[in-house]
Amino acid sequence: MIYTLENKTAVLKVDTHACEIASFKRKDKDFEYMWNGDPKYWANRNPLLFPHVSAPSSKVLNFKGEDYKVNNHGFCRKSEFEFVEQKEDELHFRLCANEETLKEYPYLFELHVRYTLKENEVKISYEVINREDGDLYFGFGQHPAFMCPIDPKKQFSDYCIRFEKEDVENKVLPLSYELFEQYPTYIVNDPKSREFVLTDGENSVRMKTDEKYKIFAVWTPHAPFVCLEPWVNTLKKEDLDTPFEKRDVICLGKGQTYDIAYSFAIE
Fold it and tell me: Lesser CB count within 10 Å: N end or C end of the chain?
């Protein structure tokens, strides 16, 4: 089901399936900023990566001493989230451990997602609550896909990503499909930047990230969109034998809550 937030500047629509943004538009511009999920290229739109980012090549992870068959980036991208409430500028959704999640991830958790719209900017806040009688282990990341070109009269190569700090040469990453032939996923580890701007000089997406995000990834499958992906951590695909709890993951104590957020403005 689709829920909508609207103000004088923008309209945001969020789908309970995968808790993804279905649309984000400015009222003064006649085009869409978010990828539409065309399965010809990639059927997702902006999935939440939980309880792990990436996956081993075997698609098997060892939790609590047992092997589980998993999907790449976890199960949120195929989960139906519960709608909790709507305020004037906020939508609140929830996903709890259930029969389907326990098939891939034998942990009890509660995951809250809140979308807050202020003028042309959406802030997405996450809260993971440990419902285990012990520690909860998980990875976390985001995978939002933006139309590229944003303006359909332009081309993919008219765009670049501007970094706040010197994480790339001259703080600018020019976009081209050739770049992604060399780097299928372009990754910046431990970025100094907390702000990243996808732009053609006239139309932009300005992303701001929490300091907990330790990786910034850029990806496209040679398609008319590009993903700007802040990750807290990621799994090594070639690492087949390491138990999940001993990997680079977050450990959350019994009854504790993990909070993280990021935002982006359409300009």
Answer: N
